Amino acid sequence: MKIPLEDNFNDLLGKAQRGLALTADQIAARAHVSLADWQRASQGEFDEAVVRRLAPVLGLGTETLVALGRKAWYPADPGSISGLAMFNTPYGDMTVNSFVVWDPATKAAVFFDTGADATGMLRLVAEQGLQVELILLTHSHVDHVAQLAEVKAATGAAAWICAGENYPAAQPFTAGREFTVGGLRIGTRATSGHSPGGITYVISGLARPVAVVGDSLFASSMGGGKVSYADALRNNREQILTLPEDTVLCPGHGPLTTVGEEKRHNPFFT
C-alpha cells in the first residue's frame, strides 16, 4: 500500500502564506482572485484557474502545484536497497517515518529517529542479527523521538542530535561531523528552518546514495518554516537538492523520493 503524500496542494498554500507572512486579503489582491476564491482554495477546494493565479504570488511552481491539486503526481518507487528499511507508524491523526540503516557485510546498524512505535525496528534488528551502534535524530519534535528511551534501553546505543536542538536526552554534535557504522559513512548537513537544529544525514556505502532528511523536505513539499521559512528554503536548495539526482531521500513523513524527483516536481523549488 502506498504511503500518501504528506501534503495536499492547499497545505502548500498555507505553508507559503505563513512563511511569507501574507494576509488572505494581500494574497487575493495580488493574485487578482476574490477573497472567497482564496478561502476555498486554502480549504482544499481545487479550482485550477484560481491555483494558477495563486502559485506565483506565493513563490510556488505553477505547473507542479496544479499537478498536486489534480493528484497527478507521486514519486517513482526507488526500489529496494539492501541495508535500508523504512517504518511508518501512526501518531495522532498522522503517520511518521523512521529508518534502520545497516552495513550488510558487518551487520552494524544505525537507527534514524524512532517514530511513534519502534517495535518493528527492534524486530528487524533481532531477525537480521544486527548490532545497533548509533541512534541519530533528525530533530527533537515529539513524533520523531517518542520511543527514544525504549530504543536506548533495548539497544544500549548512544543517541545523537545536532546541538541546535538543545535536547538533553541525546548527545549534541556540530553539523559537519561524520559518523562511521561498519563500512558506512554518514555525513551531516545543517538543514534548519523547520526546527532550530534540523539535520540531514547523507549516507554512503550502500548500493545507492541515501539521505535521511527528517522534516526538512517531503515528496512534493517540505516541513513548515516554523523557525525560519527563508532558512528552510535555502538549506533545502543548498544542502539537499545539490546532492546527486539519484540520491534516495528518506523524509520524516510521506513516501520515499529522490533528489531528481524533487528538483522537477516539488512546487517549493520548481
Task: Name the features.
single chain; 270 residues; alpha/beta; 434 Repressor (Amino-terminal Domain); Metallo-beta-lactamase, Chain A; 6-stranded mixed beta sheet; 32% helix; 23% strand; elongated
Rg, Cα atoms, Å: 19 Å
**Secondary structural class:** alpha/beta
Number of strands: 12
The backbone outline, from C-alpha atoms, is: elongated
Helical coverage, percent range: 25-40%
Count of discrete domains? 2
Q: Could you describe the largest sheet, including whether it forms a barrel?
A: 6 strands, mixed
CATH C-level class of the largest domain is Alpha Beta
User: What is the CATH superfamily of the largest domain?
Assistant: Ribonuclease Z/Hydroxyacylglutathione hydrolase-like
Strand-and-helix sequence, N→C?
A: HHHHHEEEHEHHEEEEEEHEEH
Mean pLDDT, as a whole number? 97
By CATH, the topology of the largest domain is Metallo-beta-lactamase, Chain A
| Major β-sheet strand ordering | 1-2-3-4-5-6
CATH architecture of the largest domain: 4-Layer Sandwich
**Can you count the helices?**
10
Distance between the termini: 28 Å
* Share of β-strand residues: 15-25%
**Uncertain stretches:** none
